[in-house]
Amino acid sequence: DAIPDHFVGVILANEVCDAMPVHCLQFDNGIAQERYIECINGELQWIIDELSQTELTAHTETIISLIGDASYRTEVNLAAESWLASIAENIQQGAVFIIDYGYTKTDYYHPQRSDGTLMCYYQHQGHDNPLILQGLQDITAHVDFTALAQVAFDSGLQVAGFQSQADFLLAGGITEFSDPNADALTQLQQATEIKQLTLPSEMGENFKVLSLTKGLDQLLNKAQLGDRRHSL
User: Fold this and answer.
1) Is 16 helix (H, G, I), strand (E, B) or coil?
2) Which of 74, 141, 221, 226 is the most exposed place for a label (fewest CB within 10 A)?
């Protein structure tokens, strides 16, 4: 749902963008096309055709500049960009925190990531076929944080920080939420949960946090630890 007009407050979007529908693109010899799903003889199959929206053109030009003439499949999330532009239009003052797994543009469209990031999950098992288990599996794609940062900037938001989830949580004092007076088992559980959220081998590095502000006089100090805005 859209936020109210003249909204003042904080928006926390934790694993929101990765769940939005994406455009699946295919590149061959510097030509961009879109992958569609069609029911043929009772079975869902991939087909290739022209791009469905002119808004994809700028993205395809950027991708081709990175991959050249290589055969390549990837995704573009126009829905997330539209969602963020709507927030920027309606927010009067406040902050937006986008927390998700994803990459900057150069990593997202790296030549070695030639099969894209689209993944499906069913009963905690991952695979890359969205044409099966309809309605039963989760379908997700990584977030292009460079694209979101550009939309935010163009829409009047200030890009206040870009960090790993670990740096964001540690700067916010996550360790202070542990209860030193709790029993040994509870302390162990709390320590395990903090490690899962912050260790590079767990969620700490795979998840990123894009911090955006509007109408605030100063940058968010907490968004400066391990700041990676230069990589966007």
Assistant:
1) coil
2) 221
Stated as kind and residue range, the H or E segment containing 94 is strand 91-103
Report how far Cα 39 is from the mean position of its chain's Cα atoms: 30
Helix (H, G, I), strand (E, B) or coil at 21: coil
Q: Which residue has the higher pLDDT, 62 or 204?
A: 62
What is the C-alpha to C-alpha distance for residues 179 and 150, in angstroms, rounded to an integer?
40
Number of Cβ within 10 Å of residue 103's Cβ equals 18
* Domains of the chain, CATH where assigned: 7-21+77-231 (3.40.50.12710), 23-76 (no CATH)
- pLDDT of residue 218 exceeding 90: no
Between residues 136 and 180, the one the model is more confident about: 136
Residues 6+ apart with CB under 8 A from 76: 22, 23, 25, 56, 59, 60, 144, 147
From residue 45, give the alpha-carbon distance in Å to each of 21, 69, 189, 200.
Answer: 18, 25, 46, 38
pLDDT > 70? residue 222: no
Q: Which of 72, 86, 200, 219 is nearest to 152 (CA)?
A: 86
Pairing verdict, β 7-14 and 91-103: parallel
Contact 24, 17 (CB under 8 A): no
In sequence order, what are the residues at sequence separation of 6 or more whose Cβ sits closer than 8 angstroms to the Cβ of residue 186? 179
d(CA 104, CA 87): 21
- pTM, two decimal places: 0.92
Secondary structure class of 158 (helix, strand, coil)? strand
